[in-house]
Amino acid sequence: MPHRAAAFAFLFLTLGHLSQPAAAATPCVEYGDYVRNVGWAPLPETSGRMASDDGLAYVCRGTTGLMIVDVTVPSEPTPILTYDTPGSCSDVVAEGRIVYVADGNSGLLVLDVSNPASPQVLTTYVAGSAVSYIGRDGNRLGVLGANVFRLLDVSDPASPLPMGTLPVTASFDVEVRGNRAYLGGQGSMKILDLTNPATPTLAGTFTVFGAAFNLDVMGIHVLVANAGSGLDTSDNWLVDCSNPASPTATWNESIYGAAYDVAVDGNLGYVFGYQNWFEVWDFTTPATPTLVMRHSCASIGPLALADGLLLINEVDRLQVYNVDPFEFPPVVATLSDLPVWGTRMATTPGRVYTFGRTGGQAVLGIVDAGVPGAPIWKSSIQVASSANAVGIQAVGNRVYVHTRRYFSSGQSHLAIVDVTNALAPNILGTLPTLGGGSLAVVGNYAYVAQNGASIAVVDISTPSSPVLVSETPSAGVGLGVDYDNGYLYLATESEGLQIFDLSVPASPTFVGSFPLPYANEVTVRDQVAYVSGGDVFMIDVSNPAVLSLLSTLVVDGFAGPIRFDGAYAWITTDVDVIVVDMSNPAAPRRLGEQAGHGYVYDDVGVVDDLVYTCGSDGTIQVLPAQCTVTAVPEGPTGPIAAGLRVLPPFPNPTTDDVAFVARLPGAGPYETAIHDIGGRLVTNLTSIDAPGPMDASLTWNGRDQHGRSVATGVYFIRVNGRGETATQRILVTK
Q1: Is residue 528 pLDDT above 80, yes or no?
Q2: What is the pLDDT at residue 5?
Q3: Are strands 91-95 and 562-565 parallel, antiparallel or unpaired?
Q4: Higher pLDDT residue, 564 or 680?
Q5: What is the side-by-side strand order in the sheet with 568-572?
Q6: Minimal CA–CA distance to 439: which of 451, 426, 448, 430?
Q7: DSSP-assigned states of every residue in 315-340
Q8: What are the two backbone dihedrals, phi and then psi, of residue 699, each rounded to the nearest 5 degrees?
């Protein structure tokens, strides 16, 4: 497929710290055509190493066994079952529908999963000692356990034949390629010569600080994940093994923490770290590789590459990425090495404001965005000392910022900045606060989220002398604030979303709330609140006193600010920014993302159909808009129905109880039930005789009609009535 950046006819200019194309009308792009997250499935927290092939993923779960997940439809990965192996599953290798399982003291287990719902045991090979790790190349299978390496002939998977053994100190990983085996262990990677398979010999050793925890092979090179020691700085290595007696480091990368896993796909190397990130490096030139992607995850675990998909075990969820082709959306322009490490952003027509911390000071920066695609850095101004930037809003020629001190000598305050002259901004006035979170400006008042669980109401009618009018208690410390149609919306770190009536602007009145474990950002439009709290929650606020969850968007990483460009929401997740079609907030569709280039994405804004991002690495990146999508939005189980609906259940996934709302379009009887993935009835819930259109709030306790707790898997809520049927999917994890 041709690289879509060609559509931009890029002629890059370098002017100081600005990299940009010649100014011109910038076309949109379809972000879904590039590397992106396409789906996820829940995983039990005991999950470990995994493999994938032929549309199935296999996840080790220790003594619980081997979990099998159907990924033939990448956007809907579906757990099929957990096969209870006799021992403890610690590693797995798949070749088509033949699966090899390192099953601890029970030895090597070989399964035929032609029918993944009913795996068949081909054989169990008892090696004489525990089998901890395995690696396969063609008809050779390397087995590692109890400091013994064994080589097996698996030409007939049902009858593995021993070829040779070698006592060796290694305990973490094994890879077999041709006449070589590579073993990971504490303090070193060992290279074995398998030229005579009956007598494997030690050919060489490469020493690492820490542990060679995971390995993968790239031609004559081996990519090594060094688990390091505790949280010390560790090195990941690309090791030249062309001379196995004297392996040498071609490249290494120092990281904070430790690498957990690595994988190789052609010249691309995937490196996964304990600090909840993964990187992709292009090793076309091994000594000077290029970082092409850095991405955040909710939490990091093992991975698998197969069939153009990257599967990441994030401890409690399986994330699925499309990485074929491995291309990223183009970038219109980048401002780098800026004097402001921006973590917050605000925009007005032709202007972008970035707010962050530089040298311990809270600093506001101004960018001229008047010429689309050609941003110009104008100036910056310090607004507080020893403080973090926590809130910003731009209104006309004034920018309102909120800071939170991090030393007792620092400044927590609201500052009002005149930006009429972009080259010479000046502070009009300030007001001390308790610190806290963001702010919203409404007419002559600023509403500031404060520490101490309160909202400060500030009269800003005289900008040079802002006055504290009142402090309204909130249930929990407010972090994100937004205003819409007479109501103030507050995202709190412990009490979810809270809503206040501003009929009396100086005295907000609490009217309703929606509980969430954590909420840090909120954006409200068209009677829907979009709340970031790890994932993104769409909440119906048409009746502020009675709130209901419309849907949940699961994200990889941790969701941050949400900004809109028409029906498209742009959401930052630390080291990527995703675009979501929110034309139907009950069924958000993740369209794609910008996750390349190694930049940090902390906040995002839209000016003249271009997307501006800022990051704490001192950059502003300009991205093209998402092209208009004409496809009919689909919900979790098909096209969105105009009549009978089941709103997304919560929590989902669930371990036991789950709540949901059946939106009934008119009078009549309705039946509600739970079915399994095969369509079989699990239990009937209740019959409803609706007097008219209504929302019926219901729960399911996770049990079948006999009162037994159901097993891990996919289940469906089904509501029938008035000749219609509506469903929603539930993922149950145990």
Answers
A1: yes
A2: 33
A3: unpaired
A4: 564
A5: 562-565, 568-572, 577-581, 589-594
A6: 448
A7: SSEEEEEE-SS------SEEE-S-S-
A8: -135, 155
The dihedral through the CA atoms of 462, 465, 469, 474 has a sign that is positive
Higher per-residue confidence, 509 vs 128:
509
For residue 482 the two structure tokens come to: 């937004």
Tokens of 167: 């006592």
Euclidean distance between the first and the last CA atom of the chain, given in angstroms as a whole number: 42
Encode pLDDT of 558-612 as tens digits. Answer: 899 999 999 999 999 866 899 999 999 988 989 999 875 556 789 999 998 899 9
The DSSP H or E segment spanning 536 is strand 535-540
The amino acid at 106? S
Q: Identify the three-state secondary structure at position 711.
A: coil
Write out the two tokens for 595.
């996750």
Q: Which pLDDT score is estimated for 469?
A: 97
Tokens of 319: 């994330």
Task: Give Cα separations from 526 to 487, 582, 663 (angstroms).
Answer: 13, 11, 19
Location of each CATH 2.60.40.4070 domain in the chain? 641-732
CA-CA distances (angstroms) from residue 484 to 205, 414, 442, 724? 65, 21, 9, 35
Q: What is the layout of strands, in order, in the sheet containing 398-405?
A: 387-395, 398-405, 413-418, 426-432
5 three-state secondary structure:
helix
Q: How far apart are CA 366 and CA 362, in angstroms?
A: 14
CB neighbour class for 355 (10 Å; exposed up to 12, middle 13-18, buried from 19): buried
The CATH fold of domain 333-629: Methylamine Dehydrogenase; Chain H (2.130.10)
What pLDDT, on the 0 to 100 scale, is given for residue 636? 34
Rg of the chain taking only CA atoms, in angstroms: 28
Residue 556: CB atoms within 10 Å: 26
Answering whether pTM is above 0.70, one says yes
Say how far apart CA 528 and CA 130 lie, in whole Å. Answer: 55
Collapse the DSSP code of 32 into the 3-class scheme (helix H, G, I; strand E, B; otherwise coil) and give the result. Answer: helix
- Residue 317 has phi, psi (to 5 degrees) of -155, 150
CATH classification (class only), 35-322: mainly beta
Residue 540 token pair: 């119906």
User: What are the Cα distances from residue 300, in Å, to 193, 293, 295, 585, 602?
Assistant: 33, 16, 11, 29, 20
CA distance 407 to 369: 35
Q: Name residue 581's amino acid.
A: D
Residue ranges of the alpha helices (H) in 48-191?
none
Asked if 366 contacts 347 with a C-beta cutoff of 8 angstroms, the reply is no
Is 90 exceeded by the pLDDT of residue 120?
yes
Q: How far, CA to CA in Å, does 473 sit from each of 414, 457, 500, 679?
A: 18, 11, 11, 49
3-state helix, strand, coil in the chain (%, to 5): 0, 60, 40
Which one, of 136, 189, 199, lies nearest residue 167 by Cα? 199
For 269, phi then psi, to 5°, come to -120, 125
Distance from C-alpha of 572 to C-alpha of 555, rounded to nearest angstrom: 10
Are 482 and 524 contacting, i.e. CB atoms less than 8 angstroms apart? Answer: yes
Task: Work out whether the CA dihedral 572, 574, 577, 580 comes out positive or negative.
Answer: negative
Cβ burial of 263 (10 Å; 0-12, 13-18, 19+) is buried
Provide the pLDDT for residue 613.
94
The backbone region for 390, taken as left when phi is positive above 0, alpha when psi lies in -120 to 50, beta otherwise, is alpha
Instruction: Give which of 119, 5, 101 is closest to 49, Cα–Cα.
Output: 101
Q: Which CATH number fits domain 641-732: 2.60.40.4070, 2.60.40.1080, 3.40.640.10, 1.10.10.60?
A: 2.60.40.4070
Cis bond upstream, residue 653 (ω within 30): yes
Which residues in the chain are classed under CATH 2.130.10.10? 35-322, 333-629
Burial class (CB in 10 A: 0-12, 13-18, 19+), 479: buried
Copy the structure tokens of residue 335: 């401002």
